[in-house]
Structure prediction request, 63 residues.
Amino acid sequence: MNHLHDLPRHCPDCGAVIDNESGIATEYWQADRRIYHVWCGSCGWAGDIVRVRRMIGPDSPDD
Ligand SMILES: [Zn+2]
Prediction:
């Protein structure tokens, strides 16, 4: 699995491209949540983006 593929590539605030030169996006796990810590060098926004992976089949409940 290529986790880097899922890293946020754009700032959620200003939409600037985030890469190693213009910002930081790192990934870590907390329980069943994958958390991306993002810092945008363009606007200064920093925060965590949480992606919840649910290991549930087609009968998953409503969102
Ligand atoms: Zn930004």
Q: What stands out?
A: Strands lie at 23-30, 33-40, 46-52. The mean pLDDT is 82. The longest strand covers residues 23-30.
